[in-house]
């Protein structure tokens, strides 16, 4: 009797091990299976397939109306697709927006370039303008902590008729409508200001002072990763405890993000 019970227990354990093994194999095969790709149907007379993700790549195949294609990969504003006949190529987002989903509705895509703009973190740029009527060149970089708040560091050089000026400052910048292509921004910051008069001036002294600034401006997302910006800034240089000098500057420039 005991041997019968023992054999039944061994058989039960064997069945349990087999079930566990089957579950593990099933999970592994499910993980190894290819992901389900989204299929869309061509509704235009045809869709052009390029050999690469860009207009400079030649068209080597067209998918005709009512043909089903699978979306495999995205690269910027281009999507890699596979036709029912196995042809693989790259299609612009604008063309895919005219396709139909398996449910029969029109396929919609977010502007992926705008998505990149909204998710930007580090930005580098340069600008040219006027610093109290003198020509100014400015370079800056910024890091976004949140969609509407960032910190920016700027360095500038002004070459005037009677003196040369250099400055740097770090600003906290608020951009409350950062999800728009045309977005205003505001900032305040502190830094250092240095003015060196021409050697030909009699009695002129160098100025090296703390600096405070406030800025307001606009940014416009042009395309890809480029942004056009323009700003108006108000600077205050604290040359002594009793005296400060105020400057105004306007500039416009180009930046890129990544």
What attributes does this structure have?
2 domains, 258 residues, five-stranded antiparallel sheet, single chain, eight-stranded antiparallel β-barrel, alpha+beta, 15 strands, SH3 type barrels, elongated, Porin
Summarize the structure.
The chain has helices spanning 2-32, 93-96, 112-118; strands at 38-41, 46-50, 59-64, 68-75, 78-83, 88-92, 100-101, 122-131, 134-146, 149-159, 163-174, 182-197, 207-223, 226-238, 245-257. With 258 residues, the chain is of the alpha+beta class.
Could you walk me through the main structural features you see in this protein, from its secondary elements to its overall organization?
The chain is an alpha+beta fold and 258 residues long. The protein folds into two domains: 38-109, SH3 type barrels (Roll), CATH 2.30.30.40; 117-257, Porin (Beta Barrel), CATH 2.40.160.20. The protein is 16% helix and 55% strand. The chain has three helices and 15 strands. It has helices at 2-32, 93-96, 112-118, and strands spanning 38-41, 46-50, 59-64, 68-75, 78-83, 88-92, 100-101, 122-131, 134-146, 149-159, 163-174, 182-197, 207-223, 226-238, 245-257. The strands form three sheets. The chain has an eight-stranded antiparallel beta barrel with strand order 8-9-10-11-12-13-14-15. A hairpin with a 2-residue loop joins strand 9 (134-146) and strand 10 (149-159). The longest helix is centred in the N-terminal third of the chain and has 31 residues, at 2-32. The model is unreliable at 1-6 and 28-33 (pLDDT under 50).
């Amino acid at each position: 009797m005991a041997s019968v019970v023992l054999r039944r227990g061994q058989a039960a354990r064997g069945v349990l091990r087999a079930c566990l093994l089957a579950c593990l194999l099933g999970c592994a095969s499910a993980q190894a299976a290819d992901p389900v790709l989204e299929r869309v149907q061509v509704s235009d007379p045809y869709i052009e397939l390029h050999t690469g993700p860009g207009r400079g790549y030649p068209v080597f195949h067209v998918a005709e109306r009512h043909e089903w294609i699978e979306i495999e990969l995205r690269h910027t504003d281009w999507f890699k697709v596979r036709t029912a006949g196995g042809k693989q190529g790259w299609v612009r987002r604008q063309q895919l927006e005219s396709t139909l989903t398996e449910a029969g509705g029109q396929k919609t895509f977010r502007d992926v370039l705008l998505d990149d703009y909204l998710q930007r973190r580090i930005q580098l740029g340069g600008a040219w303008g006027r610093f109290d009527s003198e020509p100014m060149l400015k370079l800056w970089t910024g890091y976004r902590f949140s969609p509407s708040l960032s910190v920016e560091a700027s360095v500038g050089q002004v070459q005037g008729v009677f003196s040369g000026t250099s400055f740097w400052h770090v600003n906290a910048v608020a951009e409350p409508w950062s999800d728009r292509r045309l977005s205003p921004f505001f900032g305040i910051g502190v830094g250092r200001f240095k003015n060196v008069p021409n050697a030909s001036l009699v009695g002129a002294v160098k100025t090296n002072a703390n600096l405070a600034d406030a800025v307001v401006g606009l940014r416009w997302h042009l395309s890809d990763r480029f942004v056009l910006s323009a700003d108006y800034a108000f600077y205050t240089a604290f040359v002594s405890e009793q005296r400060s000098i105020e400057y105004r500057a306007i500039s416009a420039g180009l930046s890129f993000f990544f």
